[in-house]
Amino acid sequence: KQEVTQIPAALSVPEGENLVLNCSFTDSAIYNLQWFRQDPGKGLTSLLLIQSSQREQTSGRLNASLDKSSGRSTLYIAASQPGDSATYLCAVQYSGAGSYQLTFGKGTKLSVIP
Amino acid sequence: DGGITQSPKYLFRKEGQNVTLSCEQNLNHDAMYWYRQDPGQGLRLIYYSQIVNDFQKGDIAEGYSVSREKKESFPLTVTSAQKNPTAFYLCASAAPGRPYEQYFGPGTRLTVT
Asked: Searching chain A, which residue's CA lies closest to the CA of residue B107?
């Protein structure tokens, strides 16, 4: 059974700092990996999707990398802003489960201090 | 505007009562999903449906039921058999051929006392 772990559970940084969020998964036979953002009491917004054949994806100040062999992904946020404060969730879609299922980590709660 | 709506945003029920959460989408998506989220936890899949009149159990289906009579709608009933129903419930949908691109609704927070 696939397990997804996110470290740290919470992170507080001053505005302007670059930061890295980590995600690890136990089964490397994945179709893809996604990073989501969740604001308090809200639904999820997809930030980046990395297919299993890809190494990284970029969107604005966000860059996500994927290393299937080691079962790891990182989300890099450059020049953090207070508006980046949210919980960031990592999810994998893997071949061991029903093909339509995503397995989520517990998230990293990010606070960017002005 | 296309999107997914969930209603109500907050729902309060007494223990022992069944309650139905609404999920509607106008994205013309075939697949729809229900997830449960507990504080400090990731999302766990309750049920999913790939097509009208068909649905499958997810990882934590016990105590829940669903129906999929229309493409646009996928209501979730939380029955009295669900031991810990208080949680945040999220609905999602996905386009044909792209099940990994799930679009999420705003969620319903259910409190059972």
From this structure: A43
The per-residue pLDDT for range B65-103, each reduced to its tens digit, is 999 999 999 999 999 989 999 999 999 999 877 777 889
Q: Please answer whether residues B107 and B90 qualify as being in contact, where contact means their C-beta atoms are separated by less than 8 angstroms.
A: yes
Is the pLDDT reported for residue A97 higher than 60? no
| Test mutation, A87, A101, A103, A109, chain B, max B CBs within 10 A | A101
Tell me the two tokens of residue A112.
């960017």
Contact B45 A101 (CB under 8 A): yes
Q: Which of residues 21-60 of A touch B (CB under 8 A)?
A: 31-32, 34, 41-46, 49
Judged against a pLDDT cut of 90, whether residue A34 lies above it is answered with yes
Reply yes or no on whether the pLDDT at B106 is more than 60. yes
Residue in this structure with the two tokens 């109500």, named with its chain if needed: B8
Q: For position B98, what pLDDT does the model report?
A: 76
